[in-house]
Amino acid sequence: VSKRNQLKKIAVLGAGSWGGTIAEHLAQQGHNVTVWHRNEEELKQMSEKRTHPFLDDLQFSHSIRFVESMNDLKQPELVVLGIPSHGVRDVMNSLPNLLQDSVYVNLAKGIENDSLKRMSEIVMECGGIDGKNVVTLSGPSHAEEVAKGLPTTLVAGSSDPEIASMVQQVFSSNTLRIYINSDIIGVELGGSVKNVIALAAGVCDGIGFGDNTKAALITRGIVEITRLGISIGGKAETFAGLSGIGDLIATCLSRHSRNRYVGEQIGRGRSLEEILDEMTMVAEGVKTSSSVKVLSEKKSVEMPICDAVYESLYEGLDPKEAVNRLMTREL
C-alpha cells in the first residue's frame, strides 16, 4: 500500500522532548499534525519560533498547528499521548468527547502510583476507549537522537494486529523502524521498570564502579523485570526484545538518560529532593520505583535491585550499603 493513502489527521498531546520529536517526525512523513501542550509559554515558543524549549536539534515544520485548547483538535484519527505517566489520567479525564473514536498511541512509560495501572489501562478507563484502539509505542529511543534522524527502532504493543499494523505504517520511516508485539502488558511493563534499573545503573556511575558492575546490573535487572512481567500476564520473550532488554541497555548506558543521571547524583551522595528541584524534565523511574515496590510485594516477586533503589530514594539507605547488601545476599 502506498504511503499516500495512509496520511492521517493526528493530535499530539504533550510536546515535551519525546512528544515534540514524534510530532515533527509525523509531520515530516506528510501527516496532518496538531499539537496541544499544557505549558502556554513553551507552546508560544514552539508555535512562533518553531524551536523546542529543551532540544536544540528540533525545529518544527510550518505544517504543524499548535493549539491552546483541546477543543481545537478536529476529530483526529490518531491521538498520541506525549505527557509524563503521572499526567495521563488528568489529560484523559479532560478530553473532549470528539476524541472518543480515535486510536490512542501512548508514549508514556510508567505505572500509576495508587492504582498500579499501566498507561493503556488508564487510557481505556478514563477515556472509555476500546482496548483494541490503544497502542503503546516503546523501545530504545532517546528523543535527542531521533530529533537528529539517527536510526532508531520501536515496538508497537497492541492486542489488535490490524491497528498495530496501521500504527506501524504511520510511524515508520527510513530512520524509525517499528516492530509489532501483541503483548502490550510486557511492552508497557518493560518500558516502565527499566527506568528503575537505570537509576541503579546511575548510582553505580556516581559511586565510580565499572563496566563489570553495569553489565551485571543490566543482566540481573532484566531478570527482575521479566519475573514481574510474567506475574501480571506478560510474555517472557517480550523482555528479550527491543522494549525490554533493548530499552534497558539504552537507558542504562546513555548520557541522555534522565533516570541514569538522577541515580548518578544519588551515588555521589546528593539528596533526591535537591536533584529533582533543579531538573526541568521528568525522571519517570523515581515515581515508578514506589509502584514497583508495591506491585512486587503484592505479586510476591523477588526484586532485590528495585528494592535497593526504592530504599536509596525514599528510606535514606546509603547507596554503597545498598550495593554491599546486593553483593552479600544469601547465595
List keywords for this structure.
single chain; 331 residues; alpha/beta; Rossmann fold; N-(1-d-carboxylethyl)-l-norvaline Dehydrogenase, domain 2; 14 helices; oxidoreductase; G3P_DH_NAD-dep_N
Describe this structure in words.
With about 325 residues, the chain is an alpha/beta fold. It has 2 domains: about 5-180, Rossmann fold (3-Layer(aba) Sandwich); about 195-325, N-(1-d-carboxylethyl)-l-norvaline Dehydrogenase, domain 2. Helix content is about 50%, strand content about 10%. The protein has an 8-stranded mixed β-sheet, with helices on both faces. Helix 2 (about 40-50) links the parallel strand 2 (about 30-35) and strand 3 (about 65). Helix 7 (about 185-205) crosses helix 12, helix 7 crosses helix 13 (about 305-315) and helix 8 packs antiparallel against helix 9 (about 240-255). The termini are far apart.
Protein topology:
Layout: E1 9-13, H1 17-28, E2 32-36, H2 40-49, E3 65-67, E4 78-81, H3 88-93, E5 103-106, H4 119-127, E6 134-138, H5 143-147, E7 152-157, H6 161-171, E8 176-181, H7 184-207, H8 211-231, H9 242-253, H10 258-267, H11 272-277, H12 284-298, H13 304-314, H14 319-327
Parallel strand pairs: 1-2, 1-4, 2-3, 4-5, 5-6, 7-8
Antiparallel strand pairs: 6-7
Helix pairs in contact: 7-8, 7-9, 7-10, 7-12, 7-13, 8-9, 12-13, 13-14
